[in-house]
């Protein structure tokens, strides 16, 4: 007798029959609970084994989706960073060129060169994101079709004359072979995303404080009350924005 575990091949259970543990427990926790049950001398029911098999497939499928989608998310952060960096560089360049009192057409040429460079970078990142997203959608579609057609043979084993303990051991080994490597990939991708989020937060904070510093210097130079009020407001906004970005960066590392 051969058991193929998939979302459609597993024994169908009505919502009333399904144990709430299926929704609240991970595969590992549910596996540990069933192992403890066997150690106490109790028998694992067919329903519980079927739920564990289904849980394995669901987790594997979700992890596969995460592995597909994380690179798309990474490209999105790169696009945001490019746009904000372009905006910050444009503001800084304008101030430097104003101080240098260069000819108007020379300033236009410099801005044009900067714009072309950043647009090329953004266009490359956008195309890369579209390509990765397209590949991701194709992989997810193939995965869905394989599961629906029963072609997913990753979780296939002969259960003939296998005890409950042996079946649990086989399922645990399948989890180690198929799901844990995906967990490691996701961990590395999340680490990359976290680094880019921190970089994005740094660029945004730099932008906030540059704008605030410019207004503060202007207020100190002119000494006008309106300029001082505007400078104070910009400093408060910079502090608030910095705190927000630090919170976002901290959350991304969790």
UniProtKB/TrEMBL annotation:
Superkingdom in the source lineage: Eukaryota
Which keywords does this chain's UniProt record carry? Membrane, Transmembrane, Transmembrane helix
Q: Which residues cross the membrane?
A: 79-97, 103-122, 193-210
- Protein name as catalogued: Uncharacterized protein
């Amino acid at each position: 007798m051969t058991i193929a575990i998939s979302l459609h091949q597993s024994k169908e259970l009505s919502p009333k029959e399904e144990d709430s543990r299926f929704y609240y427990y991970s595969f590992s926790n549910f596996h540990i609970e069933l192992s403890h049950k066997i150690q106490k001398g109790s028998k694992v029911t067919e329903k519980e084994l079927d739920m564990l098999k289904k849980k394995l497939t669901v987790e594997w499928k979700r992890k596969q989706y995460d592995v597909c989608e994380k690179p798309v998310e990474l490209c999105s952060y790169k696009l945001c960073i490019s746009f904000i960096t372009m905006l910050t560089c444009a503001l800084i360049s304008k101030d430097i060129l104003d101080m240098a009192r260069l000819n108007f057409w020379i300033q236009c040429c410099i801005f044009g060169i900067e714009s072309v460079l950043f647009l090329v970078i953004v266009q490359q990142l956008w195309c890369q994101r579209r390509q990765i997203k397209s590949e991701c959608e194709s992989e997810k579609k193939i995965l869905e079709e394989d599961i629906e057609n029963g072609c997913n043979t990753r979780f296939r084993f002969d259960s003939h004359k296998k005890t409950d303990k042996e079946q649990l051991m086989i399922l645990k080994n399948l989890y180690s072979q198929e799901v844990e490597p995906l967990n490691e990939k996701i961990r590395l991708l999340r680490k990359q995303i976290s680094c880019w989020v921190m970089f994005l937060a740094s660029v945004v904070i730099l932008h906030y404080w540059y704008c605030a510093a410019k207004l503060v210097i202007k207020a100190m130079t002119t000494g006008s009350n309106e300029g001082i009020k505007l400078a104070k407001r910009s400093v408060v906004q910079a502090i608030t924005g910095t705190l927000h970005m630090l919170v976002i960066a901290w959350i991304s590392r969790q």
